[in-house]
Amino acid sequence: MDDWEALVRQVKEANDIVEVVGMYVTLRPAGNTFKGLCPFHDDRRPSFDVDPRRQRYRCWSCGKHGDVISFIQEQDRVNFREALEILARRASISLEKTRAFRPNSERAAMIELMRWADERYQRCLHASPLAARARAYLAERGLADATIQRFGLGFAPNSWDWLVAQARREGRSLDMLVQLGLCAPRSEGEGFYDRFRDRIMFPIRNAQGQTVGFGGRILPDSPASERGPKYYNSSETPLFSKSELLFGLDQARQSAAQQGCLVIVEGYTDVMMAHQMGINHVVATMGTALNARHIRQLRRYVPRVVLVFDADAGGMTGVDRALELFVSHDLELAIATLPAGLDPCDLLLAQGADAFREVLAKATDALEFKLEQVLSQEDLVTVESRRRAIDNVLRVLAQAPEMAGHEGAVKRELIINRIAQRLGMTNQEKVLWDRLRELRSRSRAPVEKPAQQQTETRAAPAAEHEKQLVQILLASPELVGVAQANLALEEIEHPGLRRLVQILFDLHKAGEPVGLDRLRERVENQRLGEIALQFAELGRMHPDCSNWLRQILGVFEQRRYQRRKQQLQSQLLVANDHTEAVELLRQLQNK
Questions:
Q1: What topology is assigned to 105-233 in CATH?
Q2: Is the pLDDT of residue 100 over 60?
Q3: pLDDT surpasses 50 at 455
Q4: In the chain, where are the structural domains located?
Q5: Strands 28-30 and 33-36: what pairing?
Q6: 313: which of 65, 80, 106, 249 is 20 to 30 A away, CA to CA?
């Protein structure tokens, strides 16, 4: 076993799969295994098994399976190396001091630089005289020191080069600071300037708790408060995308899993105040409306989301957008309305946590909220008012991409039935269907494919001898050299399996140790990593992989012969020269 395989084994052994999965899924003992609801699909009954003896998991419904590393890969949407880092940190294993671990230099350097900047901003807020006004402002907002520490707030002083100067002194990359959106090159002359100035800094963390961006709140008494936006977020970077990230998700997801729900508000301080008062399943969008990318991420954690709107937001496009998302996705999406003139932070400070919980308890699903909105605007007495009300709802549905599959069809049927009942058209659903189709044809809204189909094209099923070849090589890596000497990579027709064999061949050619976890480190596609795990287990069940490989190479040789035979026969049919024809016949007879 090489150093890398030993390192991976050490991390696995330090992270019991039952404990790790139990952080995300409620598990209950069931004989020799543990059972729970699968976190990877909409599981209605426990079909997810975790086996502590084999340190493996499997969902008997959706088919997801693997070890503790692949679970973190799937759950947190990270690659093999990042999952290994997450589990190593959990077990207090320092990978940086391990020679076998070669970090992903660019991404790791970016994460490290963001950590460094985060630390500088936090030190400034807590210890520098430059941040006295910021500390006073946060105290006025009612945020406790423990909450500020928990969310890692910091402060960027009112200076053009405060962070730039520190980066220069410590030899940090200014070019990478530009790439991460923390500073920018001066338009005139040489040098750089800080992009965040005189702002309270809210670190934006990914689901693993790594800082990947910042939101900066200008101090109300700042000289720049009238010139710039109140809130200023990091620009799009390789680490940060405001259309995907949610503020506070790293702090909220464990509570959300217990509650079965995530609450989405608009402001950073709204999130922090809710957590301060014990309502821990609250997050915020990054100054953008909730979108399909958010939904696909949220669905990994909870089956239900509650959007909290201000009282005057009920008549805005946010409701229609929420209804579109409700229609298009396998997620329960509800809307809660705050009392007039209050945001969540104000409500929590003025009336306490119970008042906010009451607001959440009164949340209604997006369709019901829209119907209530329409009914409050139309009296439904006249024919025209009823027609307007119906079109008001159906137009939103027509704009929404259709949810695929039988579940989507059932959901649409239930939606139309609800509309018919609420708008007094019971037993007239056909009229509503016809109108919806008419509006949809006008809008020409594309049908949204499932997320998996958007990111990958399914290849044809792999041939059995190709699957067995991969099983052999993963179970007995010492045979990779034999296969490479007798087989051209192009002979493997299935693209996914060809990629696995290519990685094994490349490792062998480079003189590096060949093994399953070495391969998984290099696999870009999570699904291929799962296949590799499964194939390795299947291969280990065979008593004689060496003899098995000879048989499989024989199949490849026979296929080569058949292809060459067909090629010679085709050439013989069109041969005009007698000598050429005789030579082709000779080759056909000589296998």
A1: DNA primase DNAg catalytic core, N-terminal domain (3.90.980)
A2: no
A3: no
A4: 3-90, 105-233, 252-443, 464-570
A5: antiparallel
A6: 249
What's the rounded Cα separation, in Å, for the pair 123 and 162? 13
> Is 490 exposed, middle or buried (CB count within 10 Å of its CB: 0-12, 13-18, 19+)?
exposed
Please say whether the structural domain 464-570 has been given the CATH code 1.10.860.10. yes
Q: How many of the other CB atoms lie within 10 Å of CB of 227?
A: 8
Tokens 């003189």 sit on residue? 511
Q: What would the 3-class secondary structure string for 16-29 be?
A: CHHHHHHCCCCCEE
Residue type, 111: I
The encoded tokens of residue 587 equal: 């080759």
Flag whether the pTM goes above 0.70.
Answer: no
CATH class of the domain defined by 252-443: alpha beta
At residue 520's C-alpha, the angle toward residues 59 and 81, to 5°, is 100
Closest CA to 342 of 361, 359, 319: 359
Q: Count of CB atoms within 10 A of residue 278's CB?
A: 9
* CATH 2.60.40.650 is held by the domain 3-90: no
Q: Which helix or strand (DSSP H or E) is residue 7 part of?
A: helix 3-13
Q: Is residue 446 scored above 70 in pLDDT?
A: no
